[in-house]
């Protein structure tokens, strides 16, 4: 019996377009006008069209093979006026390393560009189009940014590896902050620590959606340790430099402090003011750190690699623009020690 299942060719014939045009419209390619895309996508839904998974897999392989010949590029956007680390130092450098390595393994060319001043944003769009960029990764940034007007996002597949972008809302790949700090607290309690303190900037607590402070709150309520309120200092970014830290340390007397990045002079002076037997240990939430010998490695290379895998699939499937339902993917960290 002859199948009545709609195909690209039958739908294209019904719509009066070529099969290639219909395929591009289903993949949301900007070469096809928005009105035509909507019309053809609506027809596909009405006819119950579903792509053959075997053919779809083959076509994805062929498209990635084509991209390996340099026809599609991925660009990482970094903060203007800064270095490639986007103000996050070792973390961002390692993220970018993971991005580049995985992109090149899949056949994409990977490069970075600085965010331009508002007056020059049109130039960024021209450069990206001229380079054949189809995928964009928003890299870690030292301050919160609204990038809605930066580009015509309809032309690009986009993934972010930072929580600092307030808009547009796109798919993100970030550390699993809550589980990471719970894992760190569990390890510390196993080692005998009973007063676990968290010291970060209030800005950074907001940036990670309060997941670190939330983890400490859980520890204080259910972790069978003594409650220590977190210190949330003034300032912007991950680096803690608030002089109020010393008073907090003296008042609450934690026997261990979890920090991401802290000013060396501030830390040393605060610790020096504490009697030797009460001096707390310092462990890092973003290991490795010059301030600590042990801590939580957030596995930035894996974050970059996962982001590229998601982005490569989006490019292949023609998923461009701002998603209706942005997803958040979290990568688990691991507890490590430079002493092991």
Give a quick set of tags describing it.
4-stranded parallel beta sheet; single chain; 16 strands; 6-stranded parallel beta sheet; 340 residues; alpha/beta
List the secondary-structure elements in sequence, H or E: HHHHEHEHEEEEEHEHHEEHEEHEEHEE
How are the strands ordered across the major sheet?
Answer: 2-1-3-5-7-15
Amino- and carboxy-terminal Cα gap: 67 Å
User: What structural class do helix, strand and pairing data support?
Assistant: alpha/beta
Q: Major β-sheet, in short?
A: 6 strands, parallel
Given the C-alpha coordinates, what overall shape results? elongated
Count of individual beta strands: 16
Helix content: 40-55%
Low-confidence stretches: 67-71, 82-87
Instruction: Write down the Rg.
Output: 24 Å
Number of helices in the DSSP assignment:
12
| Oligomeric state of this protein | single chain
Mean pLDDT: 86
Strand content: 15-25%
Secondary structure topology:
Blueprint: H1 8-15, H2 19-26, H3 34-46, H4 53-71, E1 73-78, H5 90-105, E2 109-114, H6 121-130, E3 133-138, E4 145-146, E5 157-160, E6 165-167, E7 171-175, H7 177-190, E8 196-201, H8 202-207, H9 211-222, E9 231-233, E10 239-240, H10 244-252, E11 256-259, E12 261-262, H11 264-272, E13 281-284, E14 294-297, H12 300-317, E15 328-331, E16 334-337
Parallel strand pairs: 1-2, 1-3, 3-5, 4-6, 5-7, 7-15, 8-9, 8-11, 10-12, 11-13
Antiparallel strand pairs: 14-16
Helix pairs in contact: 1-2, 2-3, 5-12, 7-9, 10-11
């Amino acid at each position: 019996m002859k199948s009545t299942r709609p195909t690209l060719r039958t739908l294209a014939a019904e719509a009066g377009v070529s099969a290639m045009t219909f395929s591009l419209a289903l993949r949301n390619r900007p070469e096809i006008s928005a009105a035509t895309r909507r019309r053809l996508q609506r027809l596909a839904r009405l006819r119950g069209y579903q792509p053959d998974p075997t053919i779809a897999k083959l076509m994805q392989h062929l498209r990635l093979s084509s991209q390996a010949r340099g026809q599609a590029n991925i660009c990482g956007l970094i903060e203007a006026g800064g270095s490639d680390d986007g103000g996050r130092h070792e973390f961002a450098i390692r993220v970018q390393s993971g991005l580049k390595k995985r992109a090149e393994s899949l056949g994409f060319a990977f490069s970075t560009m600085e965010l331009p001043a508002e007056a020059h944003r049109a130039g960024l769009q021209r450069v990206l189009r001229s380079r054949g960029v189809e995928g964009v990764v928003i890299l870690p940034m030292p301050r919160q940014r609204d990038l809605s007007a930066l580009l015509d996002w309809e032309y690009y597949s986009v993934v972010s590896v930072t929580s600092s972008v307030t808009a547009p809302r796109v798919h993100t790949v970030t550390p699993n902050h809550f589980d990471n700090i719970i894992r760190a607290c569990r390890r510390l309690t196993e080692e005998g620590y009973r007063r676990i303190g968290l010291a970060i900037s209030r800005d950074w607590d907001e940036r990670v959606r309060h997941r670190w402070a939330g983890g400490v709150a859980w520890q204080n309520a259910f972790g069978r340790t003594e409650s220590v309120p977190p210190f949330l200092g003034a300032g912007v970014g991950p680096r803690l430099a608030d002089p109020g830290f010393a008073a907090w340390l003296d008042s609450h007397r934690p026997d261990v402090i979890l920090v991401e990045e802290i000013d060396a002079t501030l830390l040393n002076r605060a610790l020096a003011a504490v009697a030797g037997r009460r001096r707390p240990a310092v462990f890092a939430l973003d290991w490795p750190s010059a301030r600590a010998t042990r801590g939580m490695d957030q596995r930035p290379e894996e974050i970059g690699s996962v982001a590229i895998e998601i982005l490569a699939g989006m490019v292949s499937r023609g998923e461009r623009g701002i998603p209706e339902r942005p997803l958040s993917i979290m990568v688990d960290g691991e507890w490590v020690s430079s002493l092991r």
